[in-house]
Design goal:
The protein is built from 14 helices and 13 strands. It is α/β, with parallel strands linked by helices. The strands form four sheets. A seven-stranded parallel sheet has the order 5-4-3-6-11-12-13, with helices on both faces. A two-stranded antiparallel ribbon has the order 1-2. A two-stranded antiparallel ribbon has the order 7-8. β4, α3 and β5 form a beta-alpha-beta unit. α2 crosses α10, α5 crosses α7 and α6 packs parallel to α7. It is globular. The structure holds nicotinamide-adenine-dinucleotide. The site of nicotinamide-adenine-dinucleotide has 29 residues, from α2, β4, β11 and α8.
Length: 392
Amino acid sequence: MVIHPKIRGFICTNAHPVGCAAHVQQQIDYVKQQPALNDVPKRVLVIGSSTGYGLASRINAAFGAGAKTLGVCFEKEPTEKKTGTAGWYNTAAFHKAAAKEGLYAHTINGDAFSNEIKDQVIEKIKEDFGQVDLVIYSLASPKRKDPVTGDLYSSTLKPIGQAYTTKTYNTDKDEVSEITLEPANDDEIQQTIKVMGGEDWELWMAALHDAGVLADNAKTTAYTYIGKKLTWPIYGQATIGKAKEDLDRAAAEMRTRYAGINLEAYVSSLKALVTQASSAIPVMPLYISLIYGVMKEEGTHEGCIEQTYRLLKDALYSENPKLDEAGRLFMNDWETNEKTQAKVEALWHQVTQDNFHQLADYAGYHSDFLKLFGFGIEGVDYDADVDPVVTW
Ligand code: NAD
């Protein structure tokens, strides 16, 4: 099969197996060029391990620290006629690279919100390495089925309180326009908290603890985005921000509940980056295109792999991590500091359809977007016939 990108709206509906493998390899190469992550423990569970921040965390743990990694993801397997999802191919490539270096890797593909997958993970931990010392919770999902009631909840990306009119960039049409986002109602807010809040993270940690597979002094972290003025109306102070606040509650509760084993639970505040999850959030593609340009000029731009390398080295396993005012591991200060934000705000006010390509780093945004699906990667022959069926 010859595979070219099929882009529909904010998503690409296919993926390239060779390109995804090359993208994973680029991240592995980056990690191997950095000083080893000696303080990171050797038994790591990553929930949401196949793309974006979770995949990068896993690559850092495995190739930077030599850790055994157990991953959980929800990806579509390829067939002869249809490519698998990027996360499927990324995971296959990760396994292959890990095996080459004699690194243990196992991935369970299924709904992380379900009790069945939690049970399978616990069984696997018991069988293969007894306990875990680090649990990274990096799920991004539009829906969650409650494991007890079976009710299905959906998250929404809407402001709270009042409608919000702002600029946005439509990646599909290459168009800067204005949109008005209607405010969420209470039910939508509660459903978003149910999907993207801390409840499932807590259920995971309770299941691991109760099964005796959480080691003494283990750490866990979930990821959040705390932006600034430009993104607050649609992120920080919107439905998704409410869900993310619930992570703070969950982290505090878990620190108390599992004080007996000295569990350290943190929310990590990461920078805005192009991932499958962020491309779906209105306003974010425009904001990200502008902030990429500013941060590249300042020499502070990072991708998922660089952010999570620093997270592990300078925050999660550092004696003196930088914390924000809410006690979160503060990794997005290079993005949210006043000087950088002032620059992006000035651009935000100027940007129009006509000057978008001059003011924003659209090329950077678009290239990162394509890379998520294994496209646009140097050295990959996109006209070659490739077998879409890849297993791990
Ligand atoms: P992503 O879409 O790249 O990754 C999501 C992962 O979750 C994938 O591995 C996917 O397979 C998995 N997943 C989704 N639903 C699942 C399910 N039901 N069961 C099992 N696995 C499932 O997203 P991302 O941007 O890397 O986001 C990860 C976390 O980082 C999220 O909490 C997000 O809010 C946070 N974050 C993202 C950004 C950003 O700009 N992208 C910034 C800060 C924080």
